[in-house]
């Protein structure tokens, strides 16, 4: 992997150079503690930020919008998305496995992925709901990006991973400088510090779960699910903000045109068949399904959890259900048995 | 790049009434579609929606595809309103069908209930086409009442085939016209003799029939690996993408719909 340095001024020049060719989406401050993606223009260039942590809205919206016409599929304009965090890249890895893996490649998703350049960035802080470091991850990206930015001093250490990334940097070579060892040392120190911050947040909340969640999730007492889902109002919010939830419905339009829209396993009709049979008939069963899906089934399929610890589900839940506490309880139950 | 959600337009060339709420539609796709018995297709009604159906015709018939459909929900209600000459969309075939090769030189016990006979008709026609490769075929079929029995005329023809034994039952017969067995389909199993060392069973029907059919086969002495179940879940996209038909780590649409019982017996929702 090639590594360069770019200062803040040159970074802005770099972005300006891309505005005509690409639709560029970058993070902007939404409110005091939140960021969101907006389209970049020469007018708002000065307001863009790299973001201390991930955006409120999940990255899947760029590749798998809430509602999308898929027949005929719209042409996808080349995009650059800037400021994507490591937890989001874990999600994209799952989406790639589902939509591009297996016998059939989902060409609608593939087209969106192919036409997008991903510029990720290290987290420089953590939210109270972040738990990537306690679930097989860390607050900085090591794969899945085209270019990664590590904020340092007055600019960024730039890691260039893919051919797409190399090409983009090459076209703007004059803006990038050779890396200085001190910046690497500084960014490594930042990484360690944020990682420790995430661990501290979770220790403080007594979050402690086994790394073998796949087995534990499916062996807890069925009563457990009644208890933990008691307050769940089945709004589906946690599933919609989750970047690794990919379930969708297909809708039919006249002339055999089609669209798809997000669905969630929390909804009663999710698994129901035409005759009325429903393999997931109760709230408890549906609630259990989301844990089985994330920590057991997708782990069985792909070797990794369908959860990266982004904590969005914690933030959005009106019943204040905390996924970390649930998996901590599951682990404790396994230890007792 | 071919869009995997794009259906192939197909003309309805024949509609046959099978029972008061079941019809068979013969479709002629604008492009040839070949399937293996047990695989399913997604059938789209223009502007209404799609639903999965397993073809009921022989896979050796390549010009047309039969689908036998019970009216149970919104899409099937609209399908039942369609007439000869109407156009529908077809995607597929999807999933894995019955592993016919693994059944060669064995006895095959088919257990079917209601409209579950639709995929089994395709399966049976596949076996009949190469009947010398099987030791014996026994078909046990149950319907709610005599008028709910589908493929009535074909049953008469099948009964004449050597090496094929057919038993039928009805749950009840209010009119008293039924001379055969009255009772749920599993009661027919008391009347059959199979070589347990060299037999497989293929089961398809409503969930409750599948549940008790499987239970009865296990009591009979079948082992889970010998029982093939055609699972019905919400196979919405058919491609292993949309998530609705998940059964444990499997997606019924791509890993099934046919599973041996041993593969799925530990998942609690299989009969729901």
Explain this structure.
The complex is a heterodimer of chains A (337) and B (272). Chain A has 12 helices and 11 strands. Chain A has 337 residues and is of the alpha/beta class. In chain A, the strands form 2 sheets. An 8-stranded mixed beta sheet of chain A has the order 3-2-5-6-7-8-1-9. A 3-stranded antiparallel beta sheet of chain A has the order 4-11-10, with no helix packed on it. The longest helix of chain A is centred in the middle third of the chain and has 24 residues. The model of chain A has no long low-confidence stretch (mean pLDDT 93). With 272 residues, chain B is of the alpha/beta class. Chain B is 18% helix and 32% strand. Chain B has a 7-stranded mixed beta sheet with strand order 10-9-8-7-11-12-15, sandwiched between helices. A 6-stranded antiparallel beta sheet of chain B has the order 4-3-6-1-2-5, with helices on one face. In chain B, strands 13-14 form a two-stranded antiparallel ribbon. The relative contact order of chain B is 0.14. Chains A and B meet through helix 4, strand 10 and helix 10 of A and strand 4, helix 1 and strand 13 of B.
